[in-house]
Design goal:
This protein is of the alpha/beta class and 940 residues long. It contains 31 helices and 43 strands. The chain is globular and about 100 Å long. About 3% of the residues have low confidence.
């Protein structure tokens, strides 16, 4: 008995301690978390293949706080749900709670909330309400919670389904859909927002509901949710807010970004007469708000107060501060948002040369970031340090100093207000830049990225429009409406300046890409590109001439020159060079004798003697890929053309533009050119020696700002003809050409005389065809559009108005008593009566509207862009009054009345047939009611 009691005690102990051991085992095993791989910015896999996003960071913080191992299992959205449902993972990191999901999962408490939106294309300018979305397919990822949400809100909603967010975004970019659904932050990803924010502005989106994210487990496994939520409850709210701010730019409970601004620096920032913030920087931040979808609020103060407000957390970001080595705020430089131009101003005397500055005294602020540049520029001048511009102006007017250096736009604005602008002259030669940075706290780097993303999504044209509003002097503006701007900060400008003069190599006989002109100067397309780069970056170049390509390439590889244009990016050269972005198309071609077969591929050159310029990267490729070719190395393009002309080579290969230029300028009437299909997509790069590779990102930045218009200008300047297929010598052929021209002229005159009758017949046929086309689309009696054209016009109206989210009206008109006129006076009077009615109807509507005849006494009027049913009823009443007037037909005074039915797109139908049937039905309602009236769907 005693033995049995011991056994029983042991069994009970095992029974009660098993869960402890089991729980211990579970804690040691990583928690396997299911997640979406494509739901930016909440749960996704980044370009490095790492799980990322707001919810991912929540769970990483949970694991750290609770000392638990976790493992993420990313999949597409639907698969991530199935993984939990099938027990392949322990829990899903977060999803919205819907009716269908509650049948399959158990939900924990909410761990985060986010707003959902409908994103609307800007072409749908009038789409303001959710109820207007019925005509459109709404893009959505399969399985998303928004599907049930929208089905509850819209009775006739239709969806375009996509497996992944990427597929949805691709469809949006391809204009397959104009409306799609997404969460807050959906377009914040930099690679997406740059392309789509212009088409889907945040101000056009429609707010749906606030959704909550809940961790979920398979139905029946709710017991594991309690310890999960206990773990989340141990996390400090400030830490969760920091994560949310990192990914969304806001924190829980905050619905706006607070911007600390300094006042009294108009036109950059100040309080207007109404007490509200205004100025250039204020408008730029408002544009930032439009781009990011985050509302902004400004709090005003002086410069010190603005900085202190950010440091204390009263504000999120500083409006724009001249941060530099001489003015450090202790805050983080989130983004360079503007560059202020500063100039030298003199009083009642205009200086024109630097020599006149000698011995003069000028005032400047001691904290000016350009102070060292100013002293270097005016070594023979003296300087007096004053803290504000008002003191500088007063000292200049009193004769204590000869002038001062200050922000140009601010100074001009101040002088205009004080009515003293005419007494001061800006010195055009000296120009300094001061960088203005948006500043935020250094521990808020995630928000810094969000700030930069918003500014990077602005276009130069948008910023130029703001700048033109506030900056009076065009010379002080930095943005262009047609060209993107490359902004360099002071540190970058100083680095570039420290490089000194750079050596650029060029080949002196490689037109039109590069050559030495008759004045002995560097010329050609590449010279234009380097001129743009030098101007944009403030670089100075020394151009080094080479007579052959190989010598130039050797000098570049050894570092004797710093860079050169038209360098092919090859693996062999990467050890010594870095390469810019491609900047010019550079297809290859071949030149052969006139009597040879045209060659379009290198595979057709087997066994031939091929001339090629020594040093070209293509030489190694040819030797490797086409070993049967017999290569003839030549020093330059002219020598290559001569080698074919003289029979030393069968073919010469070079860039198409160089071949074209060489054939055009030389005496090569027996040669012809064709393009190589194998190398049609080749493009030119700038090759930079490794000792100057720090310049690469800046040169790439300039290249990316060269737009198509600039390229066209360069092309027209340097390339008169890109491709020529042989050229006869002009001097030798001139006389023969004149004789041939005369003979052709005589032949043409004879042909014209002989074919005059034929031309008349052709003209008659064309006229007949035009009349047939007119008859096919127009009523033969009234010349109005017939049923066929009416239906075409209706289809066009549906397409246009659907995109613009606007209405148009269809009025179906049936004349009352027309049969009686026909019977009483005959068909000829009836026909003239219909013609008169048609003219009256057409004269009563706008030119943009359509009046057509269906047949008999039935007419259709299409009214485009109508605002309301009341406006349509006014037009219908006008038409009735117009028809009631007397028509004089064969000395008979006839008046008309009509019954009209009105249909409105899209309320009464979204197809041609539906609209016509609806209008026809309402017309019969009007006729049955006695005629002389109109009916529509709003009338009972």
């Amino acid at each position: 008995m005693k033995y049995n009691a011991y056994v029983l005690l042991i069994v009970l102990s095992l029974f009660y301690t098993y869960p402890v051991f089991s729980a211990q085992y579970d804690n040691n095993r990583p928690l396997l978390i299911s997640m979406s791989n494509d739901s930016y910015p909440f749960q996704f896999v980044d370009e490095s293949g790492v799980a990322s996003g707001l919810l991912v960071d929540y769970w990483l913080l949970w694991a750290k706080t609770n000392q638990r191992n976790i493992e993420f299992k990313p999949a597409n959205w639907q698969q991530s749900l199935k993984d939990v449902e099938n027990g392949l993972t322990d829990i899903h990191m977060g999803m919205a709670n819907t009716l269908s999901r509650r049948n399959a999962f158990d939900f924990a408490q909410s761990i985060s909330k986010v707003q959902s939106y409908l994103y609307i294309n800007k072409t749908l300018a009038n789409a303001k309400e959710l109820s207007q979305m019925s005509p459109y397919r709404i893009g959505v990822v399969k399985g998303a919670a928004h599907i049930e949400l929208l089905q509850q809100k819209l009775t006739n909603v239709s969806f375009a389904y996509y497996d992944t967010r990427k597929q949805l975004i691709d469809a949006v970019k391809a204009n397959e859909i104009y409306v799609f659904v997404g969460l807050e932050g959906y377009l914040q990803e930099s690679k997406v927002s740059q392309e789509m924010l212009m088409s889907f502005p945040f101000k056009s989106r429609i707010k749906l509901d606030e959704l909550s994210f809940y961790p979920v487990v398979k139905k029946g496994n709710a017991s594991i949710l309690h310890p999960i939520m206990q773990g989340f409850n141990q996390i400090e709210q400030a830490e969760l807010n920091g994560i949310k701010r990192k990914w969304l730019g806001i924190q829980r409970g905050q619905n706006e970004v607070i911007i600390a601004m300094q006042t009294g620096v108009e036109p950059y920032a100040d309080l207007g007469p109404n007490g509200l913030p205004h100025g250039l920087l204020v408008d730029i931040w408002k544009l930032w708000s439009d781009k990011t979808g985050l509302p902004v609020r400004f709090i005003a103060g002086d410069m010190k107060q603005a900085i202190d407000n950010v440091k204390k957390g009263t504000a999120d970001v500083q409006l724009g501060y001249p941060e530099s080595e001489s003015m450090k705020s202790g805050l983080n430089r989130a983004h360079l948002i503007y560059q202020v131009s500063s100039r030298l101003f003199t009083y009642k005397k205009q200086y024109k040369t630097m020599a006149e500055m000698k011995g003069k005294v000028f005032a400047v602020a001691p904290t000016s970031p350009y102070l060292s540049e100013l002293i270097e520029a005016l070594p023979d001048s003296d300087f007096r340090y004053l803290s504000n511009v008002e003191d500088m102006i007063q000292a200049t007017e009193s004769g204590e100093i000869d002038g001062f250096v200050a922000a140009s736009a601010w100074t001009q604005h101040y002088l205009l207000l004080k009515q003293r602008w005419e007494d001061f002259y800006p010195f055009p030669i000296l120009h300094f830049k001061t960088d203005l940075y948006a500043l935020n706290r250094g521990n808020d780097l995630g928000f810094s990225e969000r700030i930069a993303t918003g500014f990077n999504s602005m276009t130069s044209a948008e910023l130029a429009a703001i700048e033109a509003k506030w900056i009076l002097n065009p010379q002080d503006r930095i943005y262009s409406a047609t060209k993107e701007l490359l902004l360099l900060n002071a540190k970058q400008r100083a680095m570039i300046k420290s490089l000194g003069k750079l050596k650029v190599g060029f080949v002196n006989n490689w037109a039109p890409m590069e050559y030495k002109n008759t004045q002995g100067q560097y010329a050609g397309i590449n010279s234009e590109i380097f001129s743009i780069i030098g101007s944009e970056l403030g670089l100075k170049f020394e151009y080094i001439e080479f007579s052959d390509w190989q010598a130039l390439l050797d000098a570049l590889l050894k570092g004797d020159i710093d860079m050169s244009g038209s360098i092919a990016a090859t693996t062999e050269r990467e050890t010594d060079l870095v390469f810019s972005l491609p900047y010019w198309p550079s297809p290859w071609g071949v030149v052969t004798s006139l009597d040879s077969v045209n060659i379009f591929s290198l595979s057709e050159l087997k066994g031939l003697r091929l001339a090629v310029v020594e040093g070209y990267h293509i030489v190694a490729d040819l030797m490797r890929e086409y070993p049967t070719l017999k290569l003839v190395l030549v020093p330059n393009s002219h020598a290559g053309l001569n080698s074919v002309e003289e029979g030393k080579a069968d073919v010469f290969i070079d860039k198409v533009m160089n071949l074209s230029s060489g054939l055009k300028k030389g005496h090569f009437s027996n040669l012809k050119m064709s393009m190589l299909v194998d190398f049609a997509e080749q493009r030119s790069h700038i090759g930079i020696n490794n000792n100057k590779q720090s310049l690469l990102p800046y040169i790439n930045g300039v290249i990316s700002t060269i737009d198509r218009e600039q390229q066209q200008e360069i092309h027209h300047k340097w390339v008169s003809q890109t491709i020529e297929f042989g050229r006869e010598d002009f001097e030798n052929r001139l006389r023969v050409s004149i004789l041939v021209f005369c003979a052709l002229a005589i032949f043409v005159v004879m042909a014209l005389l002989a074919n005059r009758r034929l031309r008349k017949e052709v003209a008659l046929r064309i006229e007949a065809e035009n009349k047939m086309a007119q008859f096919a689309k127009h009523d033969s009696l009234t010349k109005l559009p017939n049923r066929s054209m009416i239906e075409e016009r209706l289809e066009q109206a549906i397409l246009i108005h659907s995109r613009e989210m606007s209405q148009f009206a269809v009025i179906f008109i049936d004349l009352d008593g027309f049969k009686a006129i026909n019977d009483a006076y005959g068909h000829h009077v009836g026909d003239d009566y219909l013609v008169a009615v048609s003219a009256a109807l057409a004269a009563s509507v706008r030119r943009s509207d359509t009046v057509g005849r269906l047949g008999g006494d039935e007419f259709i009027v299409i009214l485009n862009q109508v605002e309301s049913m009341a406006a349509v009823n006014n037009v219908a009443e006008l038409l009735l009054q117009c028809l009631a007037k007397s028509f004089i037909i064969d000395e008979l005074s006839l008046s008309a009345s009509a019954s009209m039915g009105i249909a409105i797109y899209p309320a009464d139908g979204d197809s041609v047939d539906t609209l016509l049937k609806t209008a026809d039905s309402h017309m019969y309602r009007a006729k049955n009611g006695g005629g002389k009236s109109s009916r529509n769907s709003q009338q009972q």
